[in-house]
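Reviewer 2 asked us to include a model.

Predict the structure of this chain.
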Amino acid sequence: MATTDDGYMRFFPFEEPYDHQQEAMGTIYDALDEGRDVLFEGACGTGKTLASLVPALEHARETGKTVVITTNVHQQMRQFVADARAITDQERLRAVVFRGKGSMCHIDVDYEECQALRDTTRDLVEVESDIAELEQREGELLSDGQAGSSEAMEARNAVVEELRDLQDEREEIETERSTCDHYYRNLTVDTSEFYAWLFDDVRTPDDVYEYAHEQGLCGYELLKEGMDGVDLVVCNYHHLLDPTIREQFFHWLGRDPEDIIAVFDEAHNVESAARDHARRTLTENTLDQAIAELDGEDDARADAAANVIGTFRDALVEAYEDAFGFGEREAVDEHWDDVTIANDDRKDDLTLAFLQGYTGPGFHEELDRALELGRDLDARYQEAFKEGELDTRKECQTLQAAGFIADWLDETDETGQYPVVSVRRDESTDEVYGRAELYTCIPEQVTRDLFSDLHAAVLMSATLRPFDVTEDVVGVDDPVTMAYGAQFPEERRRTYAVDGPALFSSERDNPETQQRIARTLEDIVRFTPGNTLVFCPSYSEAERYHDMTAVSATRYLDEPGTQARDLREAFTDDNDGVLYTSLWGTLGEGVSYDGDDARTVVVVGVPYPHLDDRMDAVQDAYDVAFDEEDDAGWRYAVEIPTVRKTRQALGRVVRSPDDFGARILLDKRYTEAAEMEMHDYAVRGTFPPEERREMVDIGPEKLKFAMLNFYQDMDAYDGPPPKP
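Predicted model (structure tokens):
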């Protein structure tokens, strides 16, 4: 361990930190001491995780707080566990790695069913405990009565009567109500051995599941009950970004929000993750189920509920049917696809169809009655499952439908939620059905309360700049900011900005443009001594260039909706392969291609996301929110996220000081010349200064010579190098 006066170094598990890592730890420690948030950008090799975790653990130890480190990338979760284990080998920690119930349940039930099972099981254990106490009391009274105490015999008779009632109650629970055997053992056996095992090391959720399975216990519930006051929790984003889960999560920790220091890894993803957690949806199927649920319900409120829910259901169908153009209905497949319902000068088409179709005393009044009835029905289903009258815990569709409709009919513009209608085809029936969605445009409306409530947060990523945009987008006020660029030897990497065709959307179908890109890709693959990664603007573009490039290397194609893990393993096991994928897929970040796994990475074009109604709504929302900036909507919603994804893709190679590789940006908009010649479209200026300085502008015909020279300098070719 390093010799230093900094107390937090007791949590640093290696001999010496890097100089920049030592500096970062000091900055973060001071920021946490002041209760300030931190925006921390660090390239691969910076040691961001330990630089954030070490001072956070020290501050938490000094002040009685808990550190929560969170990510949405599975590979990073494994790295966190490895780092936590290294720390606890040196300085003991009580650490928990937490995962959702769905992946840890031994009997595979949903949350509502699990809650009902827990309640009934707890009732059973309490009854059994009462029976045991009464049996002991009955025995004592019997002894006293046999010794001649008439009062004892009279009291014993009363106890026996109460005991019989409890025994009947126990039998009724055991025979007619549903319980959980695993949770029953949690409540009835000594679990101290489990907790001794749990905190003897840093255990993964899989470790906990296996241990609990062998002992017949519920590991998920044991974890929840053992989290109170731990030093460190490793978890997924949704434990902090979902407001409902967050409240429960902090309760399990036994902490108020101000007692939490949160470390967000891959924090450039917080924006999109917050949107995902804030979005709400309601399908046509749920509306049909709600109407069926109300049919025949003997309650004065049922007709009102059916009227307002049925009107919304009919309006949803009308909205998507009217939006279809010629042949579009027939083209709907099994994936959700948005249809246009937005209007510039009036309400959206679904709301208009609802208002025009509604007849009754007033939809607000009828919605209130639907919500009241829904809550009563939900409570009835809960009790029926608890009492064993239902085999599974029934969901109240009326409550779901009415709650969503009430939110939809609020002023969505003021809440920052954008109304969306999507359609898909049911593969089992071949019928098209719809879905209404409330889509959150500005995640700051979701995350600001979180960051203001926490003691402090560290947001870290390799692509967090520009910091001012991150501050605005997620709602972090007056943070400490710091950035550290690439730490590995610059001579072992090259970044080429190729003055090839600008792959505008209007140019993508141009045969001449396609041929020029394909020929350049062929040169890149041919002069790469090993595997090549090719990131395209979309899966369809990836397929196009997979088919168009004639190379001797093995070609691999990543396709949407398929499991990418096996494909990645096959590719990295190769030594002369080329993998074509979408920049917006799962292989562009959070996945390392170390050493020979990949030598060259290519980004084809400036891979802007598909610009649809949602993206237009986000841009409009940003334009309104940050109207002091020109083109704030385009910059915040499109350009900066695209460049961040591009930077993430470039970072997939050169992952250690001994590694080497080439990163290629195949589009003239990345070149320095584009800043002058096509300023409105150039993107080079959006990259950080130190990354711009490394970019070498080059023509496509000269790229193969540059690559040949670089890889020869690296002594990378096994045999004679390819001939230009």
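The longest strand covers residues 417-425. The radius of gyration is 31 Å. We have added this to the supplementary material.
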